[in-house]
Amino acid sequence: MEFVIRLGTGRARSYPLPLAVGPDWVQADGGWTAHVQLPKIPKAHIIVPSFSSVSNPSTYQFSIGRESTDLDLSLDQATSLMWVPRGANTVKPKCDAFSAHIDCWHSTKSSTAVVKLHVAQQERPQDELVVISVRPLDKRYRPTRKPLIEAPQPTPISQMMGPRSIAGGICSPTATAMALGSCWPQTIRACHDPRTRAFGCWPLAIHWGSQCGHIGAVEALFDWDSIYQVLSAGSPLVCSINFSKGHLTGAPQNQTGGHLVTLYGLTETKALVMDPAAKSHEEVSKEYDLKEFADAWLRQRGAAYIFNPKLCVYDI
User: What's the distance, CA 311 to chain centroid?
Assistant: First the structure.
């Protein structure tokens, strides 16, 4: 099973993929709450929730649980992911149908579901984007052969040119800075999670994008037409890849269990990528075999940061 629900209002309507209107907000618990019904999800699927808003709430929480008549997701039947802009996710214990994995959920058995989003702010969310994407955890999605499609090539930034103490762990903010055209040092600081000391928290990257004027979302992608649509809108994608030794020819790393790169174009046979793991800024631009890149990116999870396009001045 593969599907995605995208709900947005106001400035979020500039997101490069189709949106439905919404969500329907109800004032509750000192903030605002929305519910999204999902179809029955098979076992071994990933569910990625994402929220972005120009109002920049201090705290928001997604919960998923089995569908119930009153939509009240108690802790014994639901698992939650709580995000604060400058902190780590707080992961609640898993329920019997879904388990929490920092930035997403996995289905542990086939189940219907409802997702609850609670935003801790007084004013009603505005210019907001809510995306929930679902796909198998492990499935090969062969690339579609199409002519060249490109977003503007980002200014190259090598994470290895950053501070030595953190250079190996800042692929996410570096790839995000390239995609957004944002100041690299500021992006690193914005994506730092002080509780885990990590830089790869997906919601922090999306939150930083909204602060830069780019409404965005994390999606577990499965549709090549959507990828081409994002690129044709002028937006690079920040792609989460992993590959075993020798399975991505020309990559700076021989293998990786998780790495973020910026995809800005596709030809019939190549993926045009800015790979922050390169040793220098001059070596960041790469052309990877499209089949190898598709396998490294889309076979497991297919996660990507997607932002609405905006003209920016690059500053590294």
Answer: 21
CA distance 255 to 242: 7
Rg (CA), the chain: 19
User: Do the bridges between strand 26-28 and strand 45-53 make them parallel or antiparallel, or are there none, so unpaired?
Assistant: unpaired
Q: Are 214 and 54 in contact (CB under 8 A)?
A: no
CATH architecture, domain defined by 149-307:
Alpha-Beta Complex (3.90)
Sign, CA dihedral 142-147-150-156, equals positive
Domain residue extents for the chain = 3-136, 149-307
What are the average pLDDT values for consecutive 10-residue runs of the chain, which has 316 residues?
Answer: 96 94 91 93 97 80 75 55 64 75 92 91 91 97 88 97 97 98 96 87 92 93 95 96 96 97 96 98 98 97 92 39
Which residues lie closer than 8 Å to 172 by C-beta, 6 or more apart? 191, 199, 200, 201, 205, 238, 260
DSSP string, 215-275: -EEEEE---HHHHHHHHHTT--EEEEEEE-TTSSTT-SSS-EEEEEEEEEEE-SSEEEEE-
Tell me the whole-structure pTM to 2 decimals. Answer: 0.93
Among 202, 229, 31, residue whose Cα is nearest residue 118: 31
CA torsion 95-99-104-106 (nearest 10°) is -120
**Residue 79 near residue 63, CB atoms below 8 Å:** yes
CATH annotation of 3-136: 2.60.120
